[in-house]
From TrEMBL:
SMART domains: HTH_ARAC. One of its GO terms (molecular function) is DNA-binding transcription factor activity. Residues 203-302 form the HTH araC/xylS-type domain. InterPro entries: Homeodomain-like_sf (IPR009057), HTH_AraC (IPR018060), Tscrpt_reg_AraC-type_HTH (IPR020449). Transmembrane segments: none annotated. SUPFAM superfamilies: Homeodomain-like. It comes from Maribacter flavus. This is AraC family transcriptional regulator. It holds the Pfam family HTH_18. Keywords: DNA-binding, Transcription, Transcription regulation. The lineage of its organism: Bacteria, Pseudomonadati, Bacteroidota, Flavobacteriia, Flavobacteriales.
Length: 304
């Protein structure tokens, strides 16, 4: 059983990494080379109660186990983690000197701000690590410049403007990352099309094997895991490629199957609902009407 390390505050994180006392109780920017090169992190699982944005370049700790996946760090990647996500690190045999930086901030820093209200909209905090943001040289310079500004703001004497400026720069960094993720989606068009095709085949196989009779309608979580990616990343990828989220696709696929059964059988709407994996026929009828503007029975009658 691996030891479990839980870190709740910026001070605890600095102490664990062997860094000097933080200059701000709720936010810190530190250099990877200062923290990880001599640190033994193998055989531990970590839960850190902070938001973290980490830029890794030539990282000595190149294997990160996160959720069910392992990710081999490439140079120039940005990793996002939300509070209390569990991670593991493994040092490679041919470790080199690490470079990069980490911005860590406590939820209390942004709790009363606009960023605190919308932080969950930045879905990449819920991406698995194998969906890291891969930055171009120019993008690296952009994010590094913002991180430097935050670090300088933390380093000066705190005043009434400090927190506003720090949060504004964190927001700016996150908004640039939204743009860069969009670029990453678009530049992988062929891959995205392949994923969309694999997703369609996954739904077909699910119903061909009649898994819905045992497990119910396929969930976004199931589809993401089956395609080896986080549910939010899959939804964002499909939305960029097709304009619809994973849930939209699942419902649309089921409604098309329902239409065929309504027109080619004498089964009741409830029987069709159960056959398609719905636990409650009312839920099936509600989705059907949302997608078609008609109830199942109204659709059947309109086609007679």
């Amino acid at each position: 059983m691996k030891d479990f390390i839980k870190i709740e505050t910026i001070s605890e994180l600095h102490q664990f990494l062997g860094l000097v006392k933080p200059k701000h109780p709720l936010v810190s920017v530190f250099r990877i080379g200062d923290a990880l090169n001599d640190l033994e992190v193998d055989n531990f699982r970590y839960s850190i109660g902070l938001y973290q944005i980490s830029f890794k370049d030539n990282c000595a700790y190149t294997i990160l186990n996160y959720g069910r996946n392992s990710y081999d760090y490439q140079d120039g990647t940005l990793i996002f983690t939300a509070p209390n996500q569990v991670m593991e690190f493994k040092k490679t045999e041919k470790a080199e000197i690490s470079h990069g930086w980490t911005l860590a901030f406590h939820p209390d820093l942004i709790r009363k701000s606009e960023l605190g209200k919308k932080i969950e909209q930045y879905s990449f905090f819920s991406y698995a690590s194998n969906e890291a943001l891969h930055l171009s040289d120019e993008e690296r310079k952009t994010v590094a410049a913002i991180a430097d500004k935050i670090e300088r703001e933390i380093g000066i004497n705190l005043d009434t403007h400090s927190q506003t400026l720090i949060i504004s720069n964190i927001t700016l960094l996150l908004n640039y990352c939204v743009r860069f993720y969009d670029r990453q989606f678009y530049t992988r068009t062929n891959l995205n099309q392949d994923i969309a095709s694999q997703f369609e085949q996954l739904l077909k196989a699910y119903y061909y094997q009649e898994k819905q009779l045992e497990f119910g309608i396929p969930t976004v979580q199931y589809c993401g895991e089956a395609l080896n990616m986080s549910p939010k990343y899959l939804s964002d990828l499909l939305r960029k490629e097709t304009g619809q989220s994973t849930q939209d696709h699942i419902h649309q696929y089921i409604i098309e199957k329902a239409k065929n059964r309504l027109l080619n059988s004498i089964e009741s709407a409830s029987e069709i609902a159960y056959a398609l994996g719905f636990e409650y026929p009312q839920y099936f009828s509600r989705i059907f009407k949302k997608k078609t503007a008609m109830s199942p029975n109204e659709f059947r009658q309109s086609m007679n």
